[in-house]
Amino acid sequence: MLGILALVGDKWSLLVVGQLRDGPLRFGELHRAVRGISQRMLTLTLRKLERDGLVSRSVHASVPPRVDYALTELGDSLLGPALALGEWAIDHRTEIAANRLRYDAR
Amino acid sequence: MLGILALVGDKWSLLVVGQLRDGPLRFGELHRAVRGISQRMLTLTLRKLERDGLVSRSVHASVPPRVDYALTELGDSLLGPALALGEWAIDHRTEIAANRLRYDAR
Question: For the HTH hxlR-type domain, which residue ranges apply (chains A, B) (predicted)?
């Protein structure tokens, strides 16, 4: 299970997959949507997701060429677990922040 | 959502939480159960999980003292999403491995 979780168990991959839930986005749109990610980290994350077959990259012939990133069928199947984890994190962030303060104060 | 996912979106945290699903374990038991984790990384991961309030650490008065790690109620609530992600990874590992070969060969 170890090497497998390494596939998806990094926050950037999960966040990028989550942001593609409603359809394809361009690089710049993803960069704005995933707050805090650097251009370099987004490039690396998209390449990893494309290599794993979770995201597809399409180049559209226009001037300038438009490049879209979209979930593949496999990427779509990760949406459920990825969003569940994200929801859990949002639901419990206050409790976790309080736990940290308590731990650091002792 | 970013800082929050950082809480849980690392594979070691998810793997340790998953291993505690059936009850408390000692350090050595966890070390054997989470394959590939170093003692140092397990120590750091447990400290982070304890700080976040996901895992509790109990010292039992015996000779030598026994130290157990267990999920808190909060940690227990993460089990569902963590195991769902792990199951997804296991279910799709062959497909992902094939995608990587295809990507690297092109």
Answer: 1-97
**What ipTM describes this predicted complex?**
0.81
- B84 CA to chain A: closest CA distance, Å? 6
What's chain A's Rg over C-alpha atoms? 16
pLDDT tens across the length of chain A (106 residues): 344 455 555 778 888 999 999 999 999 999 999 988 999 999 999 999 999 999 999 998 888 888 999 999 999 999 998 888 888 888 998 999 899 999 999 8
Residue ranges of B 3-42 with Cβ closer than 8 A to chain A: 4-11, 14-15, 18, 34-36
For the domain with range A2-105, which CATH number is right: 3.10.20.30, 2.40.30.20, 1.10.10.10, 3.20.20.380?
1.10.10.10
Count of Cβ atoms closer than 10 Å to residue A47 Cβ: 13
Is the separation of the CB atoms in B50 and B72 below 8 Å? no
